[in-house]
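Action item from last week, closing it out:
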Amino acid sequence: MTQLDIAKNGVLTNELIRCAEIEEIEVDKLRRLVAEGVVVIPKNKLHNVKKPVAIGSGLSVKVNANIGTSVGYSSIQEEIEKLKVALDAGADTVMVLSTWGNLSEMRRVLVKESYVPVGSVPIYDSAVKAFNEKKNVVDFSESDFIDMVLQHAEDGVDFMTIHVGITKGVLEKSKNSKRIMKIVSRGGAIIAGWMIKNNKENPFYKNFDEILKIAKEYDITLSLGDGMRPGALVDATDVQQLEELFYMQELVEKAYAEGVQVMLEGPGHVPLNEIEMNVKLMKKIGLGRPIFLLGPLPTDRGMGHDHIVSAIGGALAGYYGCDFLCYVTPAEHIGLPDVSEVREGVIASKIAATVADVARGLPKALRLEKQMAIARRNFDWTEMFKLAIDGEKSKKKYEAMNYTDEGCSMCGPFCAIKVTRDYMEDKTQCTTK
């Protein structure tokens, strides 16, 4: 049985109990949210997830980090290092998006090494297989689609992106699209190319019932991929994007009936003034299911700093109801991120998630903000570094300045907090009580 089936039957799994503790929410309330399908707990039965995560309505905003190889850049050891850095920086999940090397071996190793849920995109394997056989990247059979989904499930991944919404009808309408960038999703482009070459329906859509059987057997959470997402700000919220979204409701209902957990993936390039509309529309069409957004990025001109752009969009998206943010690194739109850029991407996305949690008034988020205020008032540097989203970086900066007084080197003896305490308050320090 899946987490969804078990929750529907009123039973509490170990993962659900642990998630309730982390979220500081009443355990039966969380069970009801999972049973309704508005919260998911990704957990493949083959993966020992030591730190489970609940994603969805009323919970803290979660952060995903993408890692994986590319052509000419293939090293399991480097990907293990990226995984460790992402987890150390606070990523709630990771996705292995490798397109070079021994893909199955790499997934199995990273799943084993990861104590958080791991995601993947099966369609990449089919394209890589065709490329390695000196064929075009769309030269594979319909059965390869299903085989790859099963392979990823057997490798232990907890959630997977399935680009199931690109139907022949959606593809036909996209031919007259005025988009500057027609398709930017790798998986979406591969599937669209396959459909056009073979003049057939999307195998993921055609065989969705078969995919649900696999997902149910292994308790895979399906992330319904947005293959037609806009890849440029000027293309945002157009017919091509929305037409695919409208197919999602049917798929959500089918999955729920089979006891399979689902999320909806959303666009990455969205003007700031359209983020609220996109999030709320996705929630409505998706019947309240968790929303997984890349970024989003409210400008296309931030190359080299897209983790900052993403944090701006992600904070607003989280405030309006996005449940799950896929990080963006400084290398986005430039090249494969290195280990340091993976860390920067996670930290930026964690900041966005935290800003959203505070704005939404989550008690845990507000309590941590109060604790930070008290620590600053008391010059309690140890506590400040502990509470900071990136305490490691802030501690290194503080120690490098070698300032010996209780304040910091910014204001020195003219510190407003110190002056105020000495002349306007008593000598008793504030406490968390």
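Closing note: Strands lie at 39-40, 55-56, 62-67, 93-96, 118-120, 159-162, 221-224, 262-266, 291-294, 324-326.
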